[in-house]
Amino acid sequence: MAGEESKEPLSDSSDECSDQEPTWIYYRDRPEWNDVVPVELNEGPFPVVSIAYSERFKDIFNYFRAIVLKNEISERAFELTSDALELNPANYTVWQYRRTVLKGLEKNIQKELSFVRRIIEDHPKNYQVWHHRRVLVEWSGDPSSELRLTEIVLAQDAKNYHAWQHRQWVLDTFKLFDHELEFVERLLEDDIRNNSAWNQRYFVVKQTSGFSEDIISRELTFSVNSIKKVCNNESAWNYLRGVLAHYTTGLNGHPVVEELCQFLDENNSESPYYFAFLVDRMEELMQSDASKRQVLLPKADGILQVLATKMDPIRREYWLFLSRYLNSQFAN
Amino acid sequence: MDDCKEFTKEKHAKYFLRCLNALPSSLVSLDSIRLSISFFAISGLDVLGRLDLLDKHREEYINWIYLFQILPNQDDESLERCGFRGSLAATLSLESHSPSHVGRSVNIGTVSSHPLDTSHITMTYAAINTLLILGDDLGRLQRKGILAGVKALQLENGSFAATLEGSESDVRFVYCACSICYILQDWSAINIETTTNYIINSISYDGAIGQDKNQEGHAGLTFCGIAALSLMGTLDSALNLKQKAKLVRWLVSRQQSGFQGRPNKLPVDTCYSFWVPATLKILGAHQFIDRKRNRQFVLDTQCNVVGGLSKWIDHSSDPLHSYLGLAGLSVCEDTDLVEMIHPALNVTMRAFNHWKKLTSEFI
């Protein structure tokens, strides 16, 4: 049987649990479970990637399999899923069956939200718990705890992808955008380099006002102010470009951007993102106006050489490639 | 390259063999997906050029994988459940567990016993790849069932879920679906147009691909999207030159020593040494990688005592990061250390050539 060859030194924390919980009784020893025949795992005589399950784990999952095969919808089945999930919250079959039982018993959703919240706090990067949470909110139609939950998780890890994903779904489904820009700004005050927060900002603007001319100016100003404080921040530059993509004249011409470039130039700012931006601006100008090529090409080339040799040598091959590319496009 | 740490190939081979044998109980969360762990270990041995270490038990490994296949019922009922389970922990069939069944020397799988006894798309993907790597002729694959299973998982917006019920849907499973269809050379089960559009709609304002629409651009998810487009043959129609150029710059910017998964996310993590270079390779832009710096980092993540690679330096090793770190070296063409890999399929070129030979025999 799988795991039979495992040695006890691989014993796990759930064995320690049973040491600390003298009241734990194996399902196989519970008289009220006498009617159930446990289903043991058997992957044959050649076990592969076998896991050293604890006795408790084997017992619980043997009974879980049996209960599902019986399609038993009952309180004891529900509690069994709780036991199973405590040991392996990544078992998606257990979560799915739990949902079946929840529905069948018409159990209280608020209590279940508390249950899954505790597991999220312990396993914030587990796909199954976040999916379960989403399904519960879909059932209840009640998003009132979700912003707070994701805020708490993000307070532990401001870039937790699952938390951001859940939060976006809640905001969009229930139209709760009212205070989200403030939330994003608080996070950016904590960490101006939080790429997830910048992404969230774009999402909020996109889903609410959209990128009208006024909003474009506002958002450019926001990112420009950020860049003036911390120039070497890829997230802010990506955001700036993302917003500018909605502006019809490209990287050149918007007054907010022109002012930024002037400011950075006067301050002798140095950052690979700024310099790459300058090169891209020059490329656009050379593309639209051939008369500018003679002046701009050597300038762009000069910047690319600085990037390749001094400022960003890990990307040397890339900057040199750009230089060759621009020369092939714009040299006489 | 002599200021790099020594490459302890034999230790890593032993590490993968140990994973194939048993995992510590601390990894019990992998219980439902053990088949995918076997992929990391077996493909890992292949990338190390040490698949010979499995020769003695090759047929047994193949047989073990087929154990997880879900067969169509009589009258082809419940075809949509077909594909592969991740382990028998995820299956409920009494028949699967009976000694008379599992003692067989030629497994073909079992019929689904219950609506929750269904395939998981990532496991179907892993099973097919691993069988190929082991040199199987795929003769026991239930192609009709597998494709019906994949088809049933596609959503209207083009995305894919992992299981018939109870699963999220996103670009990771899109990649699995495309890989399966590519290997089986059968695109009838999926809607290429909606799948392509779904990926395009997941492109972030920064040029990279997120897990789903509006989500943050992420290197692993970008690989899934770009590799899927490449396998479907819609990469060039989906992304214009400007979009490709923007994405190349985003990818190239991920390198710090090794690679990060998102802008400003540190420390760098070994698995991105595969996701980023593989995507660049598919886009024809891998020459922009600083191979030496990546190699230095990846070799620094080697675990001295148990072998394998870890996600960060001085951290414990795990099967996923061990495999992807090595696959990353392969994509970066460190062929003095590892074998060459197919960047979109994520199997060695040797396994890919075996597939080509098999496929030419089908036609």
From TrEMBL, chain A:
Highest taxon above the source species: Eukaryota
EC number: 2.5.1.58, 2.5.1.59
GO MF term (any one): protein farnesyltransferase activity
Name of the top EC class for this enzyme: transferase
Stated name of the protein: Protein farnesyltransferase/geranylgeranyltransferase type-1 subunit alpha
Xref: InterPro entries: Prenyl_trans_a (IPR002088)
Cofactors required: Mg(2+)
Gene3D superfamilies in alphabetical order: Protein prenylyltransferase
GO CC field: CAAX-protein geranylgeranyltransferase complex; protein farnesyltransferase complex
Family membership: Belongs to the protein prenyltransferase subunit alpha family.
UniProt KW keywords: Magnesium, Prenyltransferase, Repeat, Transferase
TrEMBL record, chain B:
Enzyme's top EC category: transferase
Known catalytic reactions: geranylgeranyl diphosphate + L-cysteinyl-[protein] = S-geranylgeranyl-L-cysteinyl-[protein] + diphosphate
EC assignment: 2.5.1.59
Needed co-factor(s): Mg(2+); Zn(2+)
Molecular function via GO: CAAX-protein geranylgeranyltransferase activity; metal ion binding
Keyword Repeat recorded: yes
CC annotations in GO: CAAX-protein geranylgeranyltransferase complex
Coiled coil: none
Residue stretches making up the Prenyltransferase alpha-alpha toroid domain: 7-347
Alphabetized InterPro entries for the sequence: GGTase_I_beta (IPR041960), PGGT1B-like (IPR045089), Prenyltrans (IPR001330), Terpenoid_cyclase/PrenylTrfase (IPR008930)
Key words of the record: Magnesium, Metal-binding, Prenyltransferase, Repeat, Transferase, Zinc
Family of this protein: Belongs to the protein prenyltransferase subunit beta family.
The protein's assembly and partners: Heterodimer of FNTA and PGGT1B. PGGT1B mediates interaction with substrate peptides.
Name of protein: Geranylgeranyl transferase type-1 subunit beta
Source organism (scientific name): Daphnia magna
Lineage: Eukaryota, Metazoa, Ecdysozoa, Arthropoda, Crustacea
